[in-house]
Amino acid sequence: MVAKRIIPCLDVKDGAVVKGINFEGLKEVGDAVEMGVRYSAQGADELVYLDISASFEGRRTFAELVGKIARGINIPFTVGGGICCLDDASRLLDAGADKISINSSAIAAPSLISRIAGKYGSQFVVVAIDAKQIDGRWLCTTHGGKKLTELELFSWAREAADRGAGEILFTSMDHDGTKAGYADEVYRKLHSMLDIPVIASGGAGSIEDIRRVLDEGCADAALAASIFHYNQIPIPELKKALAASNINVRL
After folding, report:
1. What totals of helices (H) and strands (E) does the chain contain, helices first?
2. Most buried in the list 2, 83, 142, 220, measured by CB within 10 Å?
């Protein structure tokens, strides 16, 4: 049985890890490389770094940072944010990233998924999906949840997988930031319909929340930010508790 993964998510602006709400009121919380090294030592299985710098200069800074991260840690890491074409993905993968994550750009141009997968392989491509429930339908959003589309979550997840995505990272915008638990039933449905791993994001507030999404929600991995950045749930403590609940994790 494949072990479930615990994945800290780090938002990066101008080389530093920041935290805010919807990218507003950002506060620096640490150095991207140092935090990656620390999480690796604590037992994180993977890391996700998201570039939230908007300028071209920010993109160049991020690519340089990816090289430093790759030299500093010994666990896989995914990078995302502003990847709009094959060249963007190539630059980051060549710098040392293990996977890239695409979201809004994949919705705008779905063929981007197959182009990246065709060159590097599906295992390098994570399609991130942010969606919210509107009148009983889960609709995808773009631009950090700010723009609503008519694209339906489950059909888009299936299309992304068919086009070559190696993983789906789904964030429920209704649960994100609430610390009231994940959208477990949605992950269970995604798991039942897809043949690729599903990463859960949005809503982690307790060890029980994470246990539930990995067990009842059938998610392959749980991603979180604040609870790890502020040491509210230390990763070693989390993994021991999960193992005690018969969740298969790497200790």
Report:
1. 10, 12
2. 83
How does pLDDT run across 112-135, given as a tens digit for each residue? 999 999 999 999 999 999 999 999
Identify the sign of the CA torsion 184, 190, 89, 110.
Answer: negative
Question: Over the stretch 165-182, which tens digit does the pLDDT of each residue have?
Answer: 999 999 999 888 778 899
Q: Are 44 and 74 in contact (CB under 8 A)?
A: no
Among residues 167, 183, 90, 180, which one has the least CA distance to residue 123?
A: 167
Nearest to 95 by CA among 61, 66, 132, 52: 66
Give catalytic residue positions: 11, 130
- Measured between its terminal Cα atoms, the distance across the chain in Å is 15
- Phi and psi at residue 165, in whole multiples of 5°? -60, 140
- Distance between CA 30 and CA 137 in Å, rounded? 38
Q: Is the pTM of this model over 0.90?
A: yes
